[in-house]
Design a protein that fits this description.
Length: 261
Amino acid sequence: NEYEKEISISFVQKTDDFDAKDKQQLLNIYYTILASGMDEFTFYCDSSYENCLDDILDINDDSTTLSQMNNFVNVFNTFRSIKTTYTNSGKITINIDKAYSQEDIEKINEKVDVIYDELIDENKSPEWNIKKVHDYIINNTKYNLAEENSNEFTDSSTAMGVLFNGSATCNGYTDAMSIFLDKMKITNARVSNTSHIWNIVNLDNKWLHLDLTWDDPVNNLNKDMLVYDYYLIDTPELKAVDKLKDKTDHDFDTVIYDFLQ
């Protein structure tokens, strides 16, 4: 669909070969389905792939790997849940429940267009424009402590919370920033671990971290704050800031994100 994203990574790659012969190819097929914005897709295991159904079950139960795939696709193509059905003959059908409905996407795009026209100066540098969006989101959003550890899927975990409710968890901050970065045609992805998610941005062929959640810190005085501790910093700087703050929130899988070393 119109929201496909092109990012070169070693973890998974897009494929046009849907006759699965090994587990990596299965992962590539899942990723291609997500990145392409499909709601449903059917493919087959090659007759020589004896462990195909076992690997399908492993992937389907591996929520961490599937969630990491989400980080490399356009926000509007991310999934809320994935259902995999299969037959003994090797027919595999994947159904995607999207995180954003078409109505959500239309509302968000309309709001983003207005904000974009107010904030963005295409004659300025990417860094200048990223800062404008970074500051706008933080100044208009409060971290939703009530849903910090919730397993429920709500507006706060999407860009809807940022743009329409002024309240979000880290997922919402990150999705909203990614939508603006895509509109600015700036290469970006997301990084996550079991407890946190943030943005990464490619500028001048260098990947930099951008964490709006931690640049909008919660404080005991309930005062709005805006800091730049995690604004466009490289991985050594990220580790140094976390060490200074005695935090481990930005630990990430160095195999999946090998390009961030």
